[in-house]
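== Sequence entry ==
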Amino acid sequence: MWIPRALVDELRSAAATFPVVVLVGPRQVGKTSLVERTFPDHSYLSLDVAAHAEMAETRPADFLAEHPPPLLLDEIQYAPAFFRHIKTAVDGRRSDKGLFILTGSQNFPLMKSVADSLAGRAAILPLLSLSADEWHRHVGDPTPEQWRDLLWRGSFPALWADPATAPNRDRWYQGYLATYLERDVRNLLHVGNLRDFERFLRACAARCGQTLNMSEIGRDVGISATTARQWISVLVASNQIVLLEPYYRSLGKRLAKSPKLYFTDTGLAAFLMGFQSPDTLWASPQAGALWETHVVNQWLRWRDWHHPAATLWYWRDQTGNEVDLLIELDQRLIAIECKRAERPDPRATRSIDRLTHFYGKEAITHAYVACTTQQPFDLAPGVTAISGWKVWPLG
């Protein structure tokens, strides 16, 4: 069963404006299904098939003669040399749009190829697993128990598309992890033994929602800080994690502090942490971090899919006061604090108060506490408690 995706209109708009559209995201988030449904008149070919990738790399003229645009090319990162031939093809048809729709699951090598060959010719759109809003529309009116199941199970479409044939959650993630290690990690790192990397991945999951300390995580896994930094870049490149940078009014200071680490899907993080059920997750000390991860992820999708000019940050002062999420949009700051409680204590606004005092009331246009309440309510002057399961209208 197909679950409609919120990115459809943006994809169509990009294809009407640019000759090349690049859809990037982790494995199994539905990139192929989305582009095939959105562009049914395009031919489809996967470069995950070695023979196709080899032909695109070594005989590009024959490849394009046999597979002319409009064309959907899946897993384009397996033929990096082909990008310059795409450039030649689109430059010969300057008035035509939507000639090539490309997908890929490895950001860094893919983005380098796009930057080198397709600058100004390609629109780049990120796709992650289902947003809570997409999931909500698919399942109907969820109960609190179903929302907690979403946090534990995660939002990969295969786990929700058809309840009658849904795969076992643990078996699905076991296979996903094995495929990810064998395909993406080997391709990006060229390592022989992946057991240390898997331990590293689990150590990262245990630090979800925490400030990233390369030396500490490297010491726990038994690798150097330099190797830890390299492996973090692989997780970012394959869209498994996102690093949320700290906000400071000075751009230099923004770059000088450590980011916070979040997985892009709470289900994978919960699986790596070893949770066997939604109830054990919800009752655990890690539930708060995964709740924060969920909230940040919803706004990440909102930014990527609808408001690419917005920027996301977190804020922390020297005494440890922290606001989990800052959204910077149209030179406005919106502050969001994440609390798993249904009725947060008014003291939950202390960090928001500190932020407001630090930058001035005029700098913070709205402030919210993202909690599990069913109905929004005023928690303190200028601060609204609101359900954090989905994004809400800002303002």
Q: What stands out?
A: The chain has a mean pLDDT of 92. Residues 332 and 365 are 6 Å apart (CA to CA).
